[in-house]
Prior knowledge:
By secondary structure, this protein is mainly beta. It has one helix and 31 strands. The protein has one helix at residues 6-21, and strands at residues 60-69, 72-79, 82-89, 94-101, 105-110, 116-124, 127-134, 139-146, 149-154, 161-167, 173-179, 184-188, 196-197, 202-206, 217-223, 229-236, 238-242, 245-251, 258-264, 270-277, 279-280, 285-286, 290-293, 298-304, 308-309, 317-323, 331-337, 342-344, 350-353, 359-362, 367-370. It has a four-stranded antiparallel beta sheet, with no helix packed on it. The protein has a four-stranded antiparallel beta sheet with strand order 5-6-7-8, with no helix packed on it. Strands 9-10-11-12 form a four-stranded antiparallel beta sheet, with no helix packed on it. It holds the Pfam family YqgU.
Amino acid sequence: MNRLSYGKFIFILVFLTLLLGACTSKEQPKPKIPVKNEQPRSTLSVGSEWKLPISVPEGEFDRLGGWLSEDEIVYITNLEQTSNVFRYHLQTGKSELIYKTEHPIVNVQISPSKKYILIHSSPSSYEGLITIIDTKGTEKIRESIPSYELAFEWNPYNEEQVLVSTFNEDWTFQIALLDMNKLKMTELSIPQPFIRWMDERKIAFLDWDEDNPTLFAPLIVRDLEKGFEQTLFNQVLQFTTFHGKLMTVTVNEQDRTNAVYSFFDKDLKEYFSFSQPQLTKFSDWLVPFYDYNEHKKQFISFMPVKSGEADSYSAGFELMLYNLKKGSHPTLIMAGMENEPISFSPSGEALLYGNRFEKIIDLNAKKIYELIKK
């Protein structure tokens, strides 16, 4: 059993807050190579044509779960101790009940290809129930796990697999691989709870030294089949993967008040990077929310307008859009924003935004719409 230090306990709280607000906050690669010329369909409507706000048919709105398609989103409602999962059609304004559970839903995560929905519900304070359904509500697998908190990572190359990190109340943790085809969970020996998939069988994680907390850690890749490990970089603050690509956040050695975002292809060749002001916290840096869209090869992120301390910072954030394919200068979408979770639509035309994804941004019109009536 692994145990986390106080510093990493704080990191967990931030990470789980992101999960509850976004749940992926990040788009992940699809498990299959798409048919040639097959691309996500751009919405024909603009923000002014979306049927908003949502009229909730039953219960009280809790949060958005993410995108099912370009014009369909998933949202959760609560009614006493039960929870509902609805599909909402932005162009028609109609809600469709997908799934109903007798227990409060903690979180939902939609698989990278939008084929499955993972529902994390909580029958009690020390039990987590994992239910994976298809978009019609048919259950594929259900697992009950003794736990205080759970974190998940879909395998974007094989969506029948999900990495599950189980936390106890003292923040010790275990990691298992949930396999829908085999209908079982297999425990894994991995020293860190927050993991990303590099390919179908390789994972990556930051190998923090719990006895000597630092701002940075080595980025390690492990082959789950062979057990082989490789250190990719020695000093990384944060990282993520998407569609065969790797992004790292490190320090600018020439100006340590700036963070550097670097993007690497599958051969670990850097093809794009940029710097932005960074905000310090008690034990680390604040990395603002971001997302990536594979269709347009675009990266979007909040940027503080100046460096400083996160606790006292009040100057707002700029929402910046980067075209990684063209390598051009970023586009300012909006200024004076709050740093809250964001999630691209499949075509990259819109963003879900907010701690509960309660807002939607039309990126072309640069306008924010409320999904729920205040």
